[in-house]
Write a structure and sequence with these properties.
The chain has 10 helices and 8 strands. It has 210 residues and is of the alpha/beta class. It has one domain: 3-Layer(aba) Sandwich (Rossmann fold). An 8-stranded mixed beta sheet has the order 3-2-1-4-5-6-7-8, with helices on both faces. β2, α2 and β3 form a beta-alpha-beta unit. The longest helix is centred in the first third of the chain and has 12 residues. It starts with a strand and ends with a helix.
Length: 210
């Protein structure tokens, strides 16, 4: 697959490197792509650095949204013409201390954060994944043959579900499907599985899914 990484920090950078190792074409993006040369070199494979606009224009098979939560609205607005029917994997979390009042409003609102993101990227096919795992575990515990860590995920439709599940498996984690985006409350910051590094069976027990 061709994968656009929107937000190339700890989560986006590590996932991009893993996907490049797994044989995918990875487009790391930034407002300053020249600052991503070390990341591209570390990733190897078929990876390159592009601007955020170029990433969206590249017609990728999937996009990872790993920006700070405060950037969600602006990103959705700026690139509204580019992501129709594209799979967007939302790895964001609202942290009021970092993201400000809008993050607190989302956490206090009727929609969970993944539903909020889906309303902003309303023409895309949105999934939620990789927001519960610690960055160091994402970096260090990929590509395991045994004792794999679980990645809980949700998806808006069958296309986003299948794509996200494959991309989790491709880098050596076990996908655990929780349902549609309305079912992601337990994946939210400070909720049941946030920050939990456990096996798939343990994750299912925590979530009450099978």
């Amino acid at each position: 697959m061709k994968i656009g990484i929107i937000g190339s920090g700890n989560i986006g950078g590590n996932l991009g490197k893993h996907w490049a190792k797994a044989g995918h074409e990875v487009l790391f993006s930034s407002r300053h792509p020249e600052e991503l040369n070390d990341l591209v070199r570390d990733a190897g494979g078929d990876a390159k650095a592009v601007s955020v606009a170029e990433a969206w224009e590249a017609n990728a098979d999937a996009y990872l949204l790993a920006t700070p939560f405060w950037a969600v609205d602006k990103t959705a607005e700026l690139y509204a013409g580019e992501y129709k029917n594209k799979v967007i994997i939302d790895a964001t979390n609202p942290y009021p201390d970092r993201d400000g009042e809008m993050a607190q409003e989302v956490r206090d609102g009727n929609l969970n954060s993944s539903e909020y993101v889906a309303t902003r990227f309303n023409t895309a096919r949105t999934a939620k994944a990789f927001n519960t795992i610690h960055a160091e575990h994402l970096k260090e515990r990929a590509f395991r043959e045994s004792d794999k860590l679980a990645i809980p995920f949700a998806a808006q439709d069958e296309t986003s579900k299948q794509t996200t599940e494959q991309l989790i498996r491709d880098i050596g984690f076990d996908p655990v499907y929780v349902g549609d985006l309305a079912a992601t409350k337990d994946m939210e910051v400070d909720h049941k599985v946030y920050g939990k590094s456990v096996t798939a069976d343990e994750m299912r027990d925590l979530l009450g899914v099978r």
